[in-house]
Structure formats: structure tokens, C-alpha cells
Amino acid sequence: MRKLLDPRSILKLSYFYTTYQYLVGGIRARRLFIENDARINAGEKVLDIGCGPGDILRFLPEVNYTGCDINPKYIKTAREHYPQYDFHATSIEKFKLKDPQTFDVVITTGVIHHLNDNQVKTLFNLAKNALKPEGRLVTFDGCYIANQNPISKKFLDMDRGNFIRNEKEYVFLAKQYFSDVKTKIDETYFHIPYTSLIMECKNNS
Ligand SMILES: C[S@@+](CC[C@H](N)C(=O)[O-])C[C@H]1O[C@@H](n2cnc3c(N)ncnc32)[C@H](O)[C@@H]1O
């Protein structure tokens, strides 16, 4: 029998992805993530891993920005909207850093829960190599918690990402690359009930 097309695959198209994010509050969530958690200053050098169509850029100050994403359609949209920035249509596995240890901040929003453990390790390794010794990686992903609102859990279960983890599992992976991992659970950033984990990862020298 022919396999039915997953209706969520329409989100691989930039217009539908961004419209969906507006509806569920994902755009608001990214604004709050940038304001409260990533706290990026003008002039900083920023790497955005799995940048999608570049929706987060509307909330960043004037920065030296590089984005990469495996989906060429998202990168095409990002380049159209933000021709001044450096975008790479490539996977984290294939992305070659031209300028290691020069980035102030690496962000990755809504990406880790799409990746298996080996891919997450590749992402953390990439972030670690990109960052200056005092730099930081800030991540944002859906997260399972104890006694979760069942609607929040349902949204996580339905997510396109097949690797939604609990806090302990995310931190376990991050700690293999960063000595200092601070976490925050948020349940207010989206319009829908949705639980997110924010990690700020640094290396204490
Ligand atoms: C939920 S979207 C988040 C996009 C964007 N960061 C945002 O906040 O809107 C997850 C992104 O991860 C990207 N992605 C998934 N696997 C990847 C990989 N192996 N390498 C690079 N990007 C990947 C997808 O193409 C998608 O753009």
C-alpha cells in the first residue's frame, strides 16, 4: 500500500513554517528567547545552527551573523530577506567552519529535538569549536517534564522532531562538551500549552 504523506511535511516550505509559528506563538517565543535568554549584544559574532528561514533575525540587533540549515528552501528565503548575512545550505555534519573560536554566541532554536544523540554531539562539537573560549551556546527546545500539562505533552508528541527529551537527557549530552550548563524550563513563551527547555552552555577556563 502507498505510504500516506505526513501533512506536517508542508512545514518544510518557508511560508507555511513561518505562518504556523505565528499561529502557535513560536515567533513570540523566539522574541522572548532572544530578549530574556540569549541576550545578544550589537556587534557580536553569532552562529545560528539550524537557522530555518531566519525568523529569529528580526529580533537580533545588528550583529555579525552566520546561519546554516539543511533545508535549501529555508536558506533561499533567509537569503532573500537578509541578503547582508552569511547563510549556508548544509547540514551540521557537513558544515565547515571558516573561522573557528571567533564566535561570541551560538544559538540553536528548535533544532536539538530533531536530532539523534550522535547528531546532537556533532552540533555541540560544532558550537564548541565555533566559540571563543569565553563564548556561550544558548539552546531552545521542547522538553518533557514530570506532571506535564497533558495538552502540552500532546503538542510535544505531535512535534515533527522525533527526539524530544527530558531535561536530564538534554543536559547529559551538553555536559559532554560544556562544563557549565544552566537550564530554565519555560511554559509561557508560546500561545499554546508548550514546555520548553533553555540551556546556556559555557566552558569555565
Ligand atoms: C523547528 S526548525 C527551527 C528553525 C529555526 N531555528 C527557528 O527557530 O525557526 C528545525 C530546523 O533544524 C533544521 N535541521 C534539522 N536537521 C538538521 C541538520 N542535520 N543539519 C542542519 N539543520 C538541520 C531543519 O531544517 C529546520 O530548519
Concise synopsis of the structure shown:
By secondary structure, the chain is of the alpha/beta class.
Number of strands: 8
Ligands bound here?
S-adenosylmethionine
Give the overall shape, derived from the CA principal axes.
globular
Strand proportion: 25-35%
Number of helices: 6
Structural class: alpha/beta
For this structure, the CATH topology is Rossmann fold
Overall residue-averaged pLDDT value: 95
Helix content: 25-40%
Do you know the CATH architecture?
3-Layer(aba) Sandwich
Biggest sheet, in brief?
8 strands, mixed
Which blocks of ≥5 consecutive residues have pLDDT under 50?
Answer: none
Return Rg in Å.
16 Å
Distance between the termini: 57 Å
Number of domains: 1
Helix and strand element order: HHEEHEEHEHEHEE
The CATH homologous superfamily corresponds to Vaccinia Virus protein VP39
Query: What is the highest CATH level, the class?
Result: Alpha Beta
